[in-house]
Design brief:
The protein is of the alpha/beta class. The protein folds into 3 domains: about 5-30 and about 55-185, Chitobiase, domain 2; about 190-570, TIM Barrel; about 580-660, Sandwich (Immunoglobulin-like), CATH 2.60.40. The protein has 18 helices and 30 strands. The termini are far apart. Bound molecules: acetamide (ACM). Acetamide binds next to loops.
């Protein structure tokens, strides 16, 4: 080959590599200059303009920008199939810019935004993937299905300046999009968030607000936990007491699980429920955003609200005195799981009325929720009341059941049949594996990945939502700053979530989800605080290619999304900036504090003198020996001269408790 051709092809080759540097290199803070194009990939503090969560499969940046005109025309030839994406774009582009956004189904050369449904299937992108091409003249999103177009639209919004998140018009912004070619599709089909609306009730509008936030990050399942000891939230025709009695408790604040017993004179007016029409409205709202709602009716445990409404569904005669739980202690966890119940919060597997009840409930739930699965709970059902119930003993004899898990297995198999009778698939928490369910039962693995692995090996469909990565009710940092919950899950740990474990056939792993239990969450702002940014980490774990996951790169993008959420007025936790405290004793008994951060480029300043540290104070460089009479360590993180973290107040007494002096 003549030498000049070689040089040209090498140059083309090099520039194509440089052009297609993926965003994974953001964290390396490289400035790439090709001669033809120069762009700064330093996304962590500067604004490269591209910070997409979840990270797409490929992003190839091009030279130049597309600038939104004041009259934006969207062309979607198959406009009927794409009406959700058109409406979404009209609202999301129109409101903050104040520009006029119209749509046409006619082929038009003047349209600046083209939404194109493929006539011929593109096997690379599948049912939810898309291609997004931005040139200085036009934006084109191509997909096989409307869902793919919708996800392309989400990415497009993230390419616009952060003010696009505003709910009001913002003036003096250059509304431009960097030129780019993106090909993107999800790693997994089940990308879920579970929202517990039973422990605390959240209104229909609050659930919509939650859906609005999740769709930005390409989640497609909202698992609604609709029933629990603290409330029954679904109107069921024929069982009015479920919502007259079961939806209401006494409002208490403090440390959930330790509240004083309620008194008869205290009003039971805290709670609420959704009518069937409300739920249908939510289903339609979610569907318009490509989210399926999966209902959960949690039985046979977690059923105190049901039993308080209909005591005849319990095996325990004393159930006539039970009340919907307001956060009092009802379980003894001192010997670990399963807990010992102090009141019988279960439905009775030996009572035919229970199956009649569940038949009615499931038939109506199946009508309301078109999604193919119904989740029937099955977790943490205490068996200690069953052990002393003659009806259960008779059932065991009749059915030749030897153990209490087998009694629960009998119950689960009957419930599974009812679910199937109404044309739905049965899903339940991983405890149901213990008593034996049919291999058709889908399993949601929560206690550990290992139950999901066991289930997948037994050919069950599995959704992974293990506590150690995906329990977003856990504290996000040290309990001295976070509302207290019994365990912690930092952002960097949730980012390690890999829903597809080694050694199982991946075809059984439907996907993953994060679970937001709300025992300690009283309002939607706190629900948001707990969900974000860990919801970013889980979204990336279920959407992005495994090999593209990179913590530093992810965190750089997360910081840009904090700014977006600020403008969207969605709350998030800044806990990732809180230092991690590790305390131990020196050989001579002094307290030694080691501080570290999840984020690399932060400085920690501290004080022991009861004043508030800033960047003129001592900077943490090595473990600190606590001075003899000190009573408080205060710390704050900075980036350069900018305070980034919250002021943390760590009492020395608390550290003494964490590293007790050996006597
Ligand atoms: C659960 O967290 N009890 C499923």
């Amino acid at each position: 080959m003549p030498i000049h051709t070689n040089q040209i092809s090498m140059k083309l080759f090099l520039s194509s590599i440089l052009l297609s540097v993926s965003l994974s290199s953001i964290a390396q803070n490289t400035v790439v200059a090709t001669g033809e194009i120069a762009f700064d990939q330093t996304a962590s503090h500067a604004h490269s303009g591209i910070a997409i969560i979840p990270e797409p499969v490929t992003v190839t940046k091009q030279e130049g920008h597309f600038v939104l005109p004041e009259n934006i025309l969207i062309q979607a030839v198959k406009s009927n199939e794409l009406k959700q994406s058109i409406a979404f774009l009209q609202e999301r582009l129109g409101t903050p810019t104040g520009y006029f956004v119209s749509a046409t189904a006619a082929a038009s050369n003047s349209a600046q935004v083209r939404l194109v449904l493929n006539d011929k299937n593109d096997a690379v992108i599948g049912a939810e993937g898309y291609h997004l091409q931005v040139t200085p003249q036009q934006i084109t999103i191509t997909a096989n299905k409307p869902a793919g177009i919708f996800y392309g639209v989400q990415t497009l919004i993230q390419l616009l300046p952060k003010e696009i998140e505003s709910k009001e018009q913002v003036k003096d912004i250059k509304w431009q999009v960097p030129c780019v070619n993106i090909t993107d599709y999800p790693r997994l089909g089940w990308r879920g968030l579970m929202f517990d609306v039973a422990r605390h009730f959240f209104t229909k509008d609050e659930v919509k607000q939650y859906i609005d936030a999740m769709v930005r990050y390409k989640y497609n399942i909202l698992h609604l936990h609709l029933t629990d000891d603290e409330g029954w939230r679904i109107e069921i025709k024929g069982y009015p007491k479920l919502t007259e009695v079961g939806a209401w408790n006494v409002k208490r604040v403090g440390s959930f699980g330790t509240f004083m017993p309620t008194k008869p004179e205290e009003p039971r007016n805290y709670g609420g429920f959704y009518t069937q029409e409300d739920l249908k409205e939510l289903v339609a709202y979610a569907k318009a955003r490509f989210v399926n709602i999966m209902p959960e009716v949690d039985v046979p445990g977690h059923s105190l609200a049901t039993v308080a409404s209909y005591p005849e569904l319990s095996c325990t005669p004393d159930a006539v005195n039970y009340k919907v739980r307001s956060g009092e202690r009802i379980m003894d966890w001192s010997r670990g799981a399963p807990p010992l119940a102090l009141v019988d919060n279960t439905l009775c597997p030996a009572n035919e009325k229970v199956y009649e009840f569940l038949d009615t409930v499931i038939s109506q739930v199946a009508q309301i929720f078109p999604f193919e699965y119904i989740h029937m709970g099955g977790d943490e059902a205490p068996h200690n009341f069953w052990e002393k119930t003659p009806q259960i003993a008779a059932l065991m004899k009749r059915e030749n059941l030897k153990t209490m898990p087998q009694v629960q297995g009998y119950f689960e198999r009957r419930v599974e049949k009812i679910v199937e009778k109404y044309g739905k698939k049965f899903m339940a928490w991983d405890e149901v594996l213990e008593g034996g369910v049919s291999s058709k039962a889908a399993v949601m693995s929560w206690r550990d990945m290992k139950y999901g692995i066991q289930a997948a090996k037994a050919k069950h469909e599995v959704v992974m939502s293990p506590t150690q990565f995906a329990y977003i009710d856990y504290m996000q940092a040290d309990p001295i700053t976070e509302p207290k919950v019994y365990a912690s899950l930092r952002l960097s740990k949730s980012y390690e979530f890999d829903p597809v474990p080694e050694g199982v056939d991946p075809k059984y792993i439907k996907g993953g989800q994060a679970n937001l239990w709300t025992e300690q969450i009283y309002n939607i702002r706190q629900a948001e605080y707990m969900t974000w940014p860990r919801g970013f980490a889980i979204a990336e774990s279920v959407w992005s290619p495994k090999e593209k996951k990179n913590w530093k790169n992810f965190f750089a993008r997360t910081e840009q999304h904090f700014e977006r959420l600020d403008i969207a007025e969605t709350k998030y936790a800044p806990s990732v900036y809180d230092p991690i405290f590790a305390v131990k004793r020196t050989a001579d008994g002094k307290l030694l504090v080691t501080l570290s951060t999840e984020v690399e480029d932060l400085d920690i300043y501290y004080s022991f003198d009861n004043s508030f540290p800033d960047h003129f104070y001592p900077k943490y460089t090595e473990p600190l020996v606590v001075p003899i009479d000190a009573n408080m360590l205060r710390v704050i993180t900075y980036r350069g001269k900018k305070p980034i973290g919250r002021m943390m107040h760590m009492p020395i007494e608390e550290m003494n408790k964490r590293a007790p002096l050996k006597k």
